[in-house]
Amino acid sequence: SFEESLARGIGRDGNLYVPEFIPQLSDSEVASLVGADRQATAKIMLTPWVADEIPVDDLAVIIRKASTFDTPLVDVGDKKVLELFHGPTMAFKDVAAGYLSAFMSYFNQKAGRRSTVLVATSGDTGGAIAHGFADVASIDLVLLYPKGRVSLLQQEQLRRVAKNIRSLEVNGDFNDCQQLVKQAFADHELNKKLNLTSANSINIGRLLPQTTYYASLYGQLAGQTARVVVPTGNLGNLSAGLLARSMGVPIAKFLAANNANDALVRYLEHGDYEPQKTIQTMSNAMDVNAPNNLPRFIRILGDDIGNIRSVVEAVRVTDEETVQTIKQVYSDTGYLLDPHTAVGWHASNVSGGGNGDVIVSTASPLKFAEEIFAKTGIKVDNTQLLEELRQKPERYWELENSIEQLAEFLSSSKL
User: Fold this and answer.
1) pLDDT surpasses 70 at 46
2) Which residues pair with 358 in a beta bridge?
3) What are the backbone dihedrals phi and psi of residue 103, each rounded to the nearest 5 degrees, phi first?
4) What are residue 397's DSSP bridge partners?
5) Whose CB among 79, 129, 168, 341 lies 3.0–4.6 Å from 399's, allowing a Cys bridge?
6) What average pLDDT does range 337-341 have in this prediction?
7) What value, to the nearest 5°, has the Cα angle with vertex 166 and ends 164 and 172?
């Protein structure tokens, strides 16, 4: 059931949950997406997945609680940009975080249980999930992030939240954090004791809400189709787009934009790939060289490499190209791209894109003020945001890359 997969996060055998079948939107539902507001769009996209478990009136309450900001489509130069960063932590993951919190809280209250949510983050996921779960009565949240590999604003968003949020600074990279989470889920005794679940994109409760902004994109295009360019690392955002397309939302194709961590580029080139050591880049939320969602991505498209290649292209973008893109777009249009969106923009340019491409903008440049200034000389003032965050007490613990240390922390009185 949706409730069970949401609560577990990952299967007991360590594998990802995928839907047995993908519900199809009717022609009238697709037509009604044009001009629909965010809550109407969410109702159309989410009802087919959860209607047998969540009554329509309860779902309406969840949508009102979770859907708090728009994702506008704006014209920039010869492209369109889908701005997903108007939420509380200025990252696209705010969309899913609000829903995930609302869904988990709903089922926990019904069952009278408490859960511990365990999350690995390369930067943006943690802040969004932390804000979404802050002060939720039935949930403790534990975040793992790689030491020295997040921006200053990202770090403050991870460390200064609420009493039910614990942040662990791991001496390792994102892949190490991700592996620790997997190892914790494999510990059945720990799972049983804490009701462990995940808020990473491995949780199906993250992916389903993310289909809503792809539907909103189609609605804002007034029924036109477009190639959608998605900056991607762990493949969660792209997998959500593929789910939306598979449900019947008209999207022509996807262009996946990898940074130097090019697992998807290598997979599409060879039909397989070997996980590699993570390379630290300017677009740090995409610094993933062993993407968890790759098996799910493959399954959604029918385990057929030919079909996958017909729907998804992929491009590799360097830090140098990212920097040059930020400078060029800012000079030409006055619009400032964050590093992740710049990766998508450059990918569009070098793959024959231009007029008609939609770039999915996953974060605000305010989150990367220091990095943008250091690399481009363009000043971005986020001091007010930092000052506001620093009014809250700092809560974090240092952790070696050790499952024994993580298990000890999770079993301790710190929770």
Assistant:
1) yes
2) 80, 228
3) -65, -50
4) 168
5) 168
6) 97
7) 160
Tell me the two tokens of residue 344. Answer: 């998508």
Average pLDDT for 211-224: 95
Residue 379 bears catalytic tag: no
What are the structure tokens assigned to 366, written together? 């305010």
Query: Which of the residues 43, 79, 93, 367 is marked catalytic?
Result: 93
Tokens of 270: 């060879």
Give the per-residue pLDDT at 415: 61
Percentage with pLDDT > 90 across the chain: 68
Q: What's the confidence (pLDDT) of residue 11?
A: 84
Q: How confident is the model at residue 354 (pLDDT cuts 50, 70, 90)?
A: low
Q: Tell me the HSE value of 213 on the side-chain side, using a 13 A CA sphere.
A: 35
What would the pLDDT profile of 134-163 be if each residue is shown by its tens digit?
888 889 999 999 999 888 888 988 898 888
> Of 231, 226, 257, 265, nearest to 350 (Cα)?
257
Average pLDDT, the chain: 92
DSSP string, 204-271: HHHHHHHHHHHHHHHHHTTT---EEEEE-SSSHHHHHHHHHHHHT----EEEEEE-S--HHHHHHHHS
Q: Please return the burial class of 222, using the count of CB atoms within 10 Å of its CB with bins 0-12, 13-18 and 19+.
A: exposed
pLDDT of 353: 66
3-state secondary structure of 34: coil
Distance CA 141, CA 133 (A): 7
**Sole residue written with tokens 């979404």:** 132
Per-residue tokens: 396: 């974090």
CB 287 within 8 A of CB 280: yes
CB-CB contact of 325 with 345 (8 Å) = yes
Tokens, residue 7? 């609560």
Please tell me the distance from the alpha carbon of residue 273 to that of residue 413, in angstroms, as a whole number: 42
Q: Can you give the pLDDT at residue 413?
A: 59
Spell 87-113 as b/e; 16+ CB within 10 A means b.
bbbbbbbbbbbbbbbbbbbbbbeeeee
- Rounded Cα–Cα distance for residues 218 and 348 (Å): 19
Rg (CA), the chain: 20
- The whole-model pTM stands at 0.88
